[in-house]
Amino acid sequence: MRFFKLITLVSFSLFAFYGPYIAYLNDYPRVKKNIIDIYPGESINSVVSKFSSNILINKIFIKFFLVTENITNFKVGEYSIKNKKIKDVIYEMANGNTVTHKLIILEGTNIYQLEEQINKSYLINDCSFLNCIDNSFPFFEGILYPDTYFYKKGMNSSEVIKKSYQKMLNFINALEPNKYASLNKNELLILSSIIEKEAGNENEKSKIASVFLKRLSINMKLQADPTIIYGLLPNFDGDIKKSDILDKNNKYNTYMIKGLPPTPIAISSKNSILAAFNSSPGDYLFFVANSSNSHHFSKTYEEHLEKIKELGLDK
What we know:
Elements: H1 2-25, E1 35-38, H2 44-48, H3 56-68, E2 77-80, H4 86-95, E3 100-105, H5 111-119, E4 147-152, H6 157-173, H7 185-198, H8 205-217, H9 225-232, H10 242-245, H11 270-278, E5 286-291, E6 294-298, H12 301-310
Antiparallel strand pairs: 1-2, 3-4, 5-6
Helix pairs in contact: 7-8, 7-11, 8-11
């Protein structure tokens, strides 16, 4: 009889414990923060206090769960606890399933914008203005491949930057020679960056490339506004003035200098690079924006001026 009472008592105690225990593990953290950071040397108790109250029974539940699951430590990193049950939060911290962030390097981005983007990210900027790259180009602008790169909080930016650079280098080196390719790889990146900034849409990139290649072939100035702007960075105020167009000291001013500027002016997309690589000098010499995302192309200066007048841009 005494044994039966003992068994009943133990069973009742286990039932009284098990129900709240399971309910607690399947509950959601009642804290305002959705992100929790675990730092080196931080104790399990310290970490648990970030997502669970310090009520004694909760501490017992956590301790029991850790023992039964043989969890002896949490891995350092950043964790999302949003819409996750307490038991799943613990599993993720034990397994090191940290938050993954994205660095999206867009075509058209210049080195100043990239620097700002990295400084605002969760990366540690150990590659300021790409100075960590063992560079095979004579410049640092426009040498990265535009893409989405994934990283963890506190990761060095050099890991992402070097991957992007190598991807661009591989792409450039893999281009097969063709009868039109008159540019070396440095010139290719420079011209493609200008195409990137000038083109209103993907379809006209090849036509814009042919205009610039035509101008280069007859020793005509490129006269590209985006190059002037780049030479005014990082202090460009958004307005190209007449003095800027006439500025001979701006080495990116293609209204004053002949040929290509000394470096790219932005990161180029794959399509812009292929447009510069595959195109040849065409019949058109001029183009002017006739909408927010397209241009009108002209073969003669007279036709070009007529279009400018028609668009009301001569005022």
